[in-house]
């Protein structure tokens, strides 16, 4: 009987609209919508206050997540029942537009209860829908395979052998702390194994710029297809640089030593953004883009001058090396060693192999 009556009312409303006699219908729908808004918003406000109070209590008392969710679901059920009872008196005015509106209000994008199926029985209609998983879980799942940018800075030095890992050798002809390297890398990260695996692989494409600053008063000079270090004689030396720019392709493995996990829908996930200590190891290869010598000085008359010379000889065109890193949360230190000498046989300098120790300045995901 109720279904028949409801169909008759809808049919009459549609007929009235077709005949352009819509004033009464629009007025009724507006009134009904206002009632629905008032009821649902009022109950939603009460529910949110109760949920906020629960969150505050849970944080203070450190309640288990399962207990908190159970209480949340009980609160949602209580207010669902309240809404059902208050709207049921308006059952003859319900239509499809109102159903959608009520659903959007009760389970909007910012709702805090999005775990199990929830149905609303309004005016004899059963509105049933499956909410999406919690936003934090969705974002967290995406974090397992993410891309981003990374900017690193490191102290750079030249050593006499490939196996020398000391970035501060006593016999270095470079200015320790002034010679440095910047690298900007676009990387992609993938999890290795199951969702709970603490092992990740990361690969990318980067730009690396190495700057060597010899001890005063020495400068790099390209003379007859050879690179040498000699004392500066054109005046008072302010700064001397030898710069190599590379295009590099790094690949590394990262392992979380103290992983944090979360279980969702029976599946155990690792949370890399919440884990603390991790170690990494990788290799890289690169190709030289250009090499230059830059010198700034004051001549004998005290006039400031500078020059920049492109270097064509004395530098190896390719780069290959390894990198080790240690991270604590978002802070990462690393040591990087080039296996191939930076300078070739046309460079008449004692130390030709590069080593650097640095830190990740910025990481954007």
- The share of residues in extended strands comes to 35-45%
CATH class of the largest domain: Mainly Beta
Distance between the termini: 59 Å
Return the structural class. Answer: alpha+beta
**Sheet of most strands:** 8 strands, antiparallel, barrel
Question: Quick check: average pLDDT?
Answer: 80
SSE series? HHHHEEHEEEEEEEEEEEEE
Individual helix count: 5
Rg for CA atoms: 34 Å
Taking pLDDT < 50 over at least 5 consecutive residues as the criterion, the unreliable ranges are 1-10, 12-22, 105-116, 118-127, 132-139
The second-level CATH architecture of the largest domain is Beta Barrel
Number of strands: 15
Principal-axes shape call: elongated
Say what oligomer this is. single chain
- Helicity, in percent? 25-40%
**Strands in their spatial order, largest beta sheet:** 3-4-5-8-11-13-14-15
Number of domains: 2
According to CATH, the fold-level topology of the largest domain is: Porin
Structure description:
- This protein is of the alpha+beta class and 365 residues long.
- It has two domains: 2-132; 137-364, Porin.
- Helices cover 27% and strands 41% of the residues.
- It has five helices and 15 strands.
- It has an eight-stranded antiparallel β-barrel with strand order 3-4-5-8-11-13-14-15.
- A hairpin with a 7-residue loop joins strand 4 (180-191) and strand 5.
- Helix 2 runs antiparallel to helix 3 and helix 2 (23-61) runs parallel beside helix 4 (96-106).
- 21% of the residues are buried.
- Keywords: Signal.
- Residues 1-19 form the signal peptide.
- This is Outer membrane protein beta-barrel domain-containing protein.
